[in-house]
Design brief:
The complex is a heterodimer of chains A (389) and B (239). With 389 residues, chain A is α/β, with parallel strands linked by helices. Chain A has 2 domains: 5-209, 3-Layer(aba) Sandwich (Rossmann fold); 268-379, Rossmann fold, CATH 3.40.50.920. Chain A has helices spanning 9-15, 25-34, 50-62, 74-86, 97-107, 139-142, 155-169, 229-232, 241-264, 284-298, 316-322, 339-347, 368-379, and strands at 5-6, 19-24, 40-43, 67-70, 91-95, 118-123, 148-151, 178-183, 191-196, 201-202, 268-271, 277-281, 303-308, 310-312, 328-330, 354-355. Chain A is globular. Classes of the chains: A alpha/beta (389), B alpha/beta (239). Chain A: Residues 31-253 form the Pyruvate flavodoxin/ferredoxin oxidoreductase pyrimidine binding domain.
Chain lengths: 389, 239
């Protein structure tokens, strides 16, 4: 392990020289953790996440991570992460599909307890029949909990979102957990080019005293500052305290927007802003949408792409502005419920222009042709489908 | 379209919309918030001073970061808070010593509590107040509840990035900045023609008289059991 020197987050994320490597999404997660000055990582195996936490375990062996252990199961892992973060540590863990749901009760308590941790979610099917394929319906469970949720399109996003996630989550006006979700296998087990800053640099250590809540229980005797008093002593709360507590969590979630813009260049990416028809997508679907936009342009069709990087905070204003002149909006997704289509419909005044789909789920890949079919329909172009036997 | 100056003294109603939901952003370094809008610090300070000098029962609520932050910075900040209090006519100090809900009920003359900050405001008829040294999360809870149910003009002197739900919010405030605010208060006071000789706020009659010589196990609250005292024993010395 090289000697790592502490550098400012802005330098590491935005200015440091970068070197191109050809690595998997799991390796990209680990490369981010390597530079994040992580105190503790806690793992519980589940496919397709296991490889990531295995690699983080290697980082522990090499000295990049100060503590690492395997929890008894996901609920224990997520609870222990909360404990470690309350104790002042910077923490990382990752999970997938059913593992996420098993840990969900603990995870959704993190925002209310103001736990700044980073959680990698490598999506996979959660519904029966059993499958380990990369359906991303599980993201919909995270959207209403107060977590900051970023959705990575590729290996580069995985690295950038994860490293920036640690910085964003610990900003005093945010102080919330950050989820970096990406499609299992499609991204985690596939290689892509990733521009990496030097591995002999790392983020400054976490300063738990820079917090909007007391860093830990029993901090300042003789008056005991109980960390989450209103949460735990409900009998003596006012009617309003729970409401304003939740409001404060969601206010913090909104405040994350400016840091996401600062470190990740915006909540959305827009390709061809003057288009008539837009593909709006996140995660892997954005990669397929990007290809569809490219094909459509080659065919002379005026199609644009909006890649949604941040699902929470959701870029309502940005999407509304980008779609103000759109005639049709196609929302391809890797799940059956269409959580992104619902969000896009709710964000714009003329929701009737949103096409529900195409959607694939249960491990199917999302061919560009499916998106092209919707693009042709939006332009009123008829294409014959022929089966040659 | 965003409303101009959306964060005004209440009562806003049953459950006010958080300022962050109304599009109010925290100020960048060197700036401040006035009624939810980003302005120059000087402008916000003068408006805050005017409120403290013209509204009923101005009160400072120092929080744990001033009261219990036992380090040089916190001590200097606490001194600066007292210097500020001296310059505000008939100013009172009501502490926010911790964030626990109070059993069986809060004593609104002794302290303010984030579970019921409005009760302390209403009981004492406070129409202008300053939050200082309160952890940001708890300050935000309190400021919003005060805006919901009272007409109090709230001022947040924040050591971090500020608070959208206060009528006036200054950021990066430490002892020097509090003294700068004190100077603005004195200046505005003179402009308003208010005569005042600086003096410390009165002792809070609701608090037990401090005995700086003897420490009772009761002073250690729920840690008292660690001392294993006999019933009624008074500890004369401690390390």
């Amino acid at each position: 392990m090289p000697e790592q020197r502490v550098v400012e987050p802005d330098y590491l994320l935005l200015e440091a020289p970068r070197e191109k490597k050809f690595i998997t999404g799991s390796q990209a997660f680990a490369e981010a953790v390597k530079r994040a000055n992580v105190d503790v990582a806690i793992a519980y195996p589940i496919t397709p996440q296991s490889e990531t936490m295995h690699l983080v375990g290697d980082l522990y062996a090499q000295g990049y991570v100060k503590d690492y252990y395997r929890a008894e199961e996901e609920y224990g892992a997520m609870s222990a992460i909360a404990g470690a973060v309350r104790g002042g540590a910077r923490a990382f863990t990752a999970t997938s599909g059913p593992g996420l749901l098993r840990g969900l009760e603990a995870i959704v308590s993190w925002p209310g307890h103001r736990i700044p941790a980073v959680l990698g979610v490598m999506t996979r099917v959660v519904n029966a029949p059993l499958s380990i394929q990369p359906d991303n319906v599980e993201i919909s469970y995270l959207l209403n909990s107060g977590l900051v949720v970023l959705h990575a399109e590729n290996q580069q996003d995985v690295f950038d979102f994860t490293l920036a996630g640690f910085v964003i989550s610990e900003k005093v006006d945010v102080y919330l957990p950050v989820v970096v979700a990406t499609e299992g296998f499609f991204v985690t087990h596939a290689k892509g080019y990733v521009e990496l800053p030097p591995e002999d640099m790392k983020l400054p250590p976490r300063d738990p005293y820079k917090a909007p809540v007391p860093p830990t229980d029993c901090e300042i005797p003789p008056a005991r500052i109980q960390r989450d008093a209103p949460v735990q002593k409900s009998n003596f709360m006012s009617y309003l305290i729970h409401a304003v507590w939740q409001q404060e969590v969601w206010s913090a979630n909104r405040r994350a927007a400016k840091w996401i813009k600062h470190y990740l260049g915006g909540l959305i990416e827009v390709v061809n802003p003057d288009a008539e028809v837009f593909v709006v997508a996140s995660g892997c679907a954005a990669a397929q949408g990007r290809e569809a936009q490219r094909y459509a342009t080659m065919e002379g069709l005026n199609v644009g792409l909006i890649k949604v990087k941040s699902l929470r905070p959701f870029p309502v204003d940005e999407i509304r502005e980008a779609l103000k002149n759109a005639k049709a909006v196609i929302v391809p997704e890797h799940n059956i419920v269409g959580w992104l289509a619902k969000e896009v419909k709710a964000a714009i005044p003329n929701s009737g222009i949103v096409v529900d789909g195409p959607r694939v789920y249960g491990g199917m890949t999302l061919p560009v042709e499916l998106i092209m079919e919707e693009i042709y329909k939006a332009f009123g172009i008829k294409k014959e489908k022929k089966v040659v036997v | 379209m965003a409303k101009k100056n959306p964060i005004q003294p209440g009562p806003e109603g049953y459950i006010p919309t958080p300022a962050a939901f109304q599009g109010c952003d925290l100020p960048p370094p060197g700036k401040a918030l006035l009624y939810g809008e980003i302005v120059d610090e000087e402008v916000a300070m003068r408006e805050a001073a005017k409120a403290l000098l013209t509204r009923r029962n101005p009160t400072i609520f120092p929080g744990p970061l001033v009261l219990w932050g036992w380090n040089a910075d916190a001590m200097e900040k606490a001194k600066a808070v007292l210097e500020l209090a001296m310059e505000i006519p008939n100013c009172r100090i009501i502490p926010m010593p911790d964030y626990r809900p109070k059993y069986p009920k809060i004593d609104p003359e002794a302290e303010i509590n984030p579970n019921h900050p409005n009760l302390t405001i209403l009981h004492n008829k406070i129409e202008a107040c300053i939050f200082v040294g309160v952890h940001c999360h708890y300050a935000n809870l309190s400021l919003r509840m005060i805006r919901a149910g009272t007409n109090c003009f709230t001022i947040a002197l924040c050591a971090e990035m500020g608070h959208e739900d206060a009528m006036v919010s200054l950021r990066d405030v430490h002892a020097d900045e509090i003294r700068k605010f004190r100077d603005v208060v004195v200046e505005v006071r003179k402009e308003l023609g208010i005569e005042w000789e600086p003096k410390l706020p009165p002792e809070n009659p609701s608090l037990p008289k401090e005995d700086w010589v003897k420490i009772s196990p009761l002073d250690f609250g729920e840690y008292a059991y660690l001392l294993i005292p006999r019933r009624g024993e008074i500890v004369e010395e401690s390390e």
